[in-house]
Amino acid sequence: MTSDQPFEQPASESTANDAFDVEQQDIADALFPIVGIAASAGGLEAFTELLKYLLTDTEMAFVLIQHLDPNHKSLLSEILGRTTQMPVTEVRDGVTVEPNKVYIIPPNTKMMLSSGVLPSSK
Prior knowledge:
Blueprint: H1 11-30, E1 34-39, H2 44-53, E2 61-66, H3 76-81, E3 88-90, E4 95-96, E5 102-104, E6 110-111, E7 117-118, E8 120-121
Parallel strand pairs: 1-2, 2-5, 3-5
Antiparallel strand pairs: 4-7, 6-8
């Protein structure tokens, strides 16, 4: 077949392939390691030393669990927040875990990770 017009690929094939590539990239971007670290009541120094030397763009999330007095407000988030450039927050029910952040379990709380969310119960 001869033609003066160049061959054109149907737009639907190109769009489908592009959409597939974007979807695959979104899935790859959404996956990241979640590192859980537990310590006894004396674990503050270990947490501090770890966070001091971690890069801020590890593409990992860190969930720190420390044995805390159930009857007192914890200052762990504030203390560790001075040690790293990563955001350090005490977990509130239903927080979606994100990379390059540090999450602290609140006192007197049971915590689990489910589908990338940290629901908690007292």
